[in-house]
Amino acid sequence: MPELPEVETYRRFLHELAVEETVAAFEVKDRHVLATDEQVLRTALVGRRITGTSRLGKNCFLHLSDGHVLVLHFGMTGDVGAYRDEADAPRFTRVALHLGSGLRLAFIDPRKFGRIRLAESVEAYQQAKKLGPDALAITTKQLHTALSRRKSLLKPALLDQHLTAGLGNWIVDEVLFQARIHPERVAATLTEAEFSSLHAAIQLVLRTAIKHEANYRTFPASFLIHAREWDDSATPGTDAHRFCPRHRDTEIVKTYVGGRATYTCPICQPEI
Ligand SMILES: [Zn+2]
């Protein structure tokens, strides 16, 4: 599932190719992914210039010259691509934006859970969807304020997109491992120092994932994700990936928190 790091990688790709380009045509191959009427989208897009891009959580925005934004949400299997000739259109292209340069941008989505819609602005969309601040932009103070009111468990609170947008299941596990906090702590009981560690870990995990273009196999060996994916890329030919990178004789444990698969180190992240 495309999480914040994948979506940021898609955004950079689109930014590189689309900014300052004019939309020449809006081609719909499968209406299923449209959350705004096709004709409304075509009228809003064709002839408009793309002035910039941005991202909020797992949503990517193309900014249009009249102030509106095209919102891309990638669902379970969404991706982006670019091509020039119809014969080269990627498989499962559902919608294509034809640019003035002749390049075509593809919204690719095999399972069709992704959505394309028009919004008045990023702020209007954020309000309508009640999304919190982006996880990469949230400050320690905002995180502290939002969590210190929560009597719920920490992991479900961090997954709540109203609190902060863009933290998915594996990301929250990695963040809590890096911050050495148990996922079933009550959010409001964290200390000042723990809030700071949590904020630093969110930055570390997201920035690392974006730097590696969300290819977890190339993540540092100090990351928990290798245990979650049973992947020995970071420690080839050994079973070290099944153990805590800090406590080499302690096996990473899989449990369920709020119904979601959760990985922790019992030594690094004690239950209090
Ligand atoms: Zn450990």
TrEMBL record:
It catalyses: Hydrolysis of DNA containing ring-opened 7-methylguanine residues, releasing 2,6-diamino-4-hydroxy-5-(N-methyl)formamidopyrimidine; 2'-deoxyribonucleotide-(2'-deoxyribose 5'-phosphate)-2'-deoxyribonucleotide-DNA = a 3'-end 2'-deoxyribonucleotide-(2,3-dehydro-2,3-deoxyribose 5'-phosphate)-DNA + a 5'-end 5'-phospho-2'-deoxyribonucleoside-DNA + H(+). GO terms for biological process: base-excision repair. Its EC number is 3.2.2.23. Keywords: DNA damage, DNA repair, DNA-binding, Glycosidase, Hydrolase, Lyase, Multifunctional enzyme. One of its GO terms (molecular function) is damaged DNA binding. Residues 2-114 form the Formamidopyrimidine-DNA glycosylase catalytic domain. SMART domains: Fapy_DNA_glyco, H2TH. Gene3D superfamilies: 1.10.8.50, MutM-like, N-terminal. SUPFAM superfamilies: N-terminal domain of MutM-like DNA repair proteins (SSF81624), S13-like H2TH domain (SSF46946). The keyword DNA-binding applies. Coiled coil: none annotated. Monomer. Belongs to the FPG family. PANTHER family: FORMAMIDOPYRIMIDINE-DNA GLYCOSYLASE. This is DNA-formamidopyrimidine glycosylase. It comes from Hymenobacter metallilatus. The gene is mutM.
